[in-house]
Amino acid sequence: YYNDSTIVFLNGEWIPAAQANTSLYNQTMHYGNGIFEGIRAYDTPTGVKIFKGKEHYQRMLDSAKLMHIKTDYTVDQLIELSYELLQKNNFTNAYIRPLFYLGPNMTLMPVEETNLFLCAWEWGKYLGDSLLRVATSSYQRPNPKSCHVEAKTVGHYINSILASTEAKQKGFDEALMLDAAGFVAEGPGANFFYEKHSCLYTCPLGNILPGITRNTILDLAKEHNIPTAVKLFTIDDVKTADSAFFTGTAAEVIGIKTLDDYTFPLDWDKSLGKQLLTAYQQEVRK
Ligand code: PMP
Questions:
Q1: CB-ligand 1 contact for 190 (6 Å cutoff)
Q2: Each residue's pLDDT tens digit, 100-137
Q3: What does the radius of gyration of the chain's CA atoms come to, in whole angstroms?
C-alpha cells in the first residue's frame, strides 16, 4: 500500500507514510468507532478527476454525524485535500482512503478529538476481472436496529470480513448476505443487482450501505433506457435470474458466474451488467 516515497495526510500535516503513527489507546482501535471512505480517481482527457468526490465525502460526514464523531472538515476541504494527496504522490489512477479515527481515549462515551488520516494507492479492481463464484452467506447484514447500517463505520466491517472469509473457506470468491428478514441485502464490500427478462433489480436502502456506484448504475440504466426496479427479493428470486453483478467503487461492476449451485444462464458479454460496466468505465473517465 505504500513505499518510501508515499506521502499521507495526518491531522494537518503531510508526512511520509512510514511516519504516520498513532496511540494504541483509542476508541477506534478497541471498539471500532471510526469512519472511512473508499474513493477512486481516474485519469481523464482533462486531467485527474475524483469520481463523485462530493457524494463520498458527504456520506463520510453523514456517517460521522450518525456515530457522534465530531469534525469541522467540509466536503470541499476534503476534496481539496484529496487532490493535493494525488498530486504529492503523482497518482493519476488511484484509490483514496480517508479515515476519521478518534484521539487517545478508551471510553465508550463520545470522544471529542477526531483525527483525519488520508492515504491513497494505485489499485486494480478489487475482486478482479473474472466472473465470480458467489456463496449465500450464513452471516446476515448488521441489524439496522442495532447500529446505523447506512454509515460507513469501521466496526461494521467485521461482518464483511466474516462473510468473505466464510465464502473463501468454502472455495468461493465472494459472499452474498441477507438482511435480518431473509431478503437479499449485499456483498461484504459491494451492492448487488440481478437481471431478469431484461429488467434490473436491486434491493432498497435500509439494510445496505447506500452505494454511490449503485446510484450511478441506476442513473446509467435510465440513460440507456434499461428498466430497473428497486424492491426486496429473496435468494430464490436470484436463482431464477438471467445474470447478476456486484457494484462498488473498488469493484466497479463485476459479473457473477454462479450463486451457490446456480449458474446464471445469460452470457455475461450479452448482459445488461456488461453493458453498464462499459458505460461506467466511460463515465468515470469523462
Ligand atoms: N456495500 C458495502 C458494505 C461496501 O463496503 C461498499 C463499498 N464502499 C459498497 C456497498 C459499495 O459502495 P460504493 O459504491 O459507494 O463504493
A1: yes
A2: 999 999 999 999 999 999 999 998 777 777 999 999 99
A3: 19
Q: Output the pTM of the full model.
A: 0.97
Q: The C-alpha cell of 164 is what?
A: 468473505
How large is the ipTM? 0.99
Best mutation site among 137, 177, 178, 209 for ligand 1 pocket (most ligand atoms within 8 Å of CB):
209
User: Which residues on adjacent β-strands are paired with residue 195?
Assistant: 200, 243
CATH superfamily of this structure's domain 132-283? D-amino Acid Aminotransferase, subunit A, domain 2 (3.20.10.10)
Element (DSSP H or E) covering residue 48: strand 47-50
Q: 108 C-alpha vs ligand 1 centroid, how far in Å?
A: 27
Other C-beta atoms lying within 10 Å of the C-beta of residue 8: 21
Each domain of the chain, given as residue ranges in start order, spans 7-121, 132-283
Residues annotated as catalytic are 152
CATH T-level topology, domain 7-121: D-amino Acid Aminotransferase; Chain A, domain 1 (3.30.470)
Ligand 1 pocket test: pick from 153, 184, 191, 247 the residue with the most ligand atoms within 8 Å of its Cβ: 191
